[in-house]
Write a structure and sequence with these properties.
five-stranded parallel sheet
Amino acid sequence: MLTIAVVEDEEKYKKELDAFLCRFSEETGSQLKVAHFSDGDEIAQEYAGGMDIILMDIQMRFMDGMTAARRIRERDGAVVIIFITNRVDYAVQGYQVDALDYILKPLNYYALKESLLRAAERLSASRGKKITLQSASGFLVLETDRITYVESIGHNLIYHTKKNEHMVRQNMSEAEKLLGGEQFCRIHKGYLVNLMHVTSVQGNDCIVDGQRLPVGRTRKNELMRLLISTVE
């Protein structure tokens, strides 16, 4: 099942999108669960994840779609965002929020179908474990594959991804339990790394996504064992 949010303030386009989504469901056999929002602020203010795809109008009265997308991205790096607009000059801004596509108004069913199929492919390829964290700004949803490493700072942890850093009130033992498995390795009292993003081990340092992190003397053997097991 795909959970889709339709964020559109014009009733005409809202009805048209609903009709197109029904047609897509019938033609592809996909089960859809659709939620409606009439403005960007309505979805962004209390967003707590749970959506697979967001169809987002850009020009809305209270909060435009681009601003809403930025706020959603702070909490959810996995949801697929597809913008709906009558202007093509927003494309560059869309890269900043990792938008999959733009659908131009007036709406065309086949353009929407193509975008939804691409979205389904992306979701299928990236389906992995997701975790939900409580940050100062609210709930945060992260795919574990996108986390490069976790860093301990005082009584907080920083979850690093390739594009963002997210601070949460948590200790490293809680992070280890939450992430689990052998994809992550505690290399130091202050660092937990995702082995998928380790590019090399140089002396007593581990290189993760271009960052040089210290490896504790007693933890290096376990790190090397896990790295070897990932390539066997």
